[in-house]
Amino acid sequence: MRILALVLILLLNFCGLTSAAQATEPQKVVVFQIDGTIDDSSLAMVKKAYQKAEQENASLIVMQMDTFGGAVDAATKIRDIIIDSKIPTVCLVKNRAWSAGALIALAHKDIAMTKSASIGAAEPIPATEKTISALKAEFASTAEKTGRNARLAEAMVDKTLGYKDYAKPGQILSLTQVAANKEGIAEHSAQDVDEVIKQLNVANPQKITVEKTFKETLLGWLGNPAVKSILLTVIMLGIITEIKAAGTGIAGLIAVIAGVAVFGAGLISDSGAYLPILIFLLGVGLLVLEIFIPGFGISGILGILFIIVSFFLTLGGGVAAIKWVALSLLMTAVGIYILSKYLPNSSIYKRIVLKSNSSLPVEQSPHRDELLGQTGVTVTMMRPAGKVKIGERTYDALTEGDFLQANVQVVVSKVVGEKIYVSGK
Fold first, then answer.
1. CA–CA separation, 273 and 265 (whole Å)
2. pTM of the model
């Protein structure tokens, strides 16, 4: 009996020690911040934090947020990541979660707010019937998914609804910390992350802080519609200049760098951004086809249309995207005018284009007035610069019309100083 009792005591002690060890095992909590405008950098930051939480087998993810709002497309992608997370999530609203920030906050399992915080004010811009309807449904479904009042969430988007005494019909709904707690939108009131963790009864928490790096900052900058519009203009001007400048490669290289910046950034921040890239590459391919196999311009027109569509998609679609694409096309037109007027007369153009990639002997005589009216044949393609053979000599020349293929008969239509201009016969 004594032996049996001793065994039981040892077993109980062992179980007690095991339970104590389990109770004191650190619970990992991943913490990160979302501040400022909601954009591609915010999306990249959320992805980074959630991947870290999965790698560390975290017990909780805490997002501290302070934002006036931002891009709805980035916010909806962030919302989906939070909704789909198998790890419990909590959002601490530091000062404000307005507009797109309100949608992100509602996606969390728990919301905590500081005494100075507010949430709501999510009317879309532009506030059309279509955008209000779509965003209102997004807010309602998110609230329902996380067990909150869908009607209240809709009133944050649609000012015609109103809600109790907080907002009359015609006023957009925003809630203070006290009101949000009272209406069940926020479950906790806390002043910092540590207080949130304590209120959630996380035993022996081990905080893992995920910081914003230059990569996320750069993605946010490149995701700005204004920056994208400028880069898209650079791409178009690079392609057009490359076509017209006899394939020197410099303008093409600039276009490639701008393309990598635009589409590469979108691909990093959003794994579903393949479609705009594929459409863009198809458009470029059609333009190249038009250059080397000139037809009736159909492939060239289609190529331009495909490129414009890719621009529209990479800018997020919608009315705002149309405006940015229109601005990009306008800047491209202005750029083409400036390049066509000033570039052919510049010393850079002469060095890069007229003296590029040819081992053919070129006539250097400055006395070229006698060439006016003479006929010759193109030695290289004229886009618009190239080389022509007149008599037994080869000259640098420019075409006054469209580009010409090699081995095409031409006539010297104008001579300005050392510059020879030719046109097809």
1. 9
2. 0.67
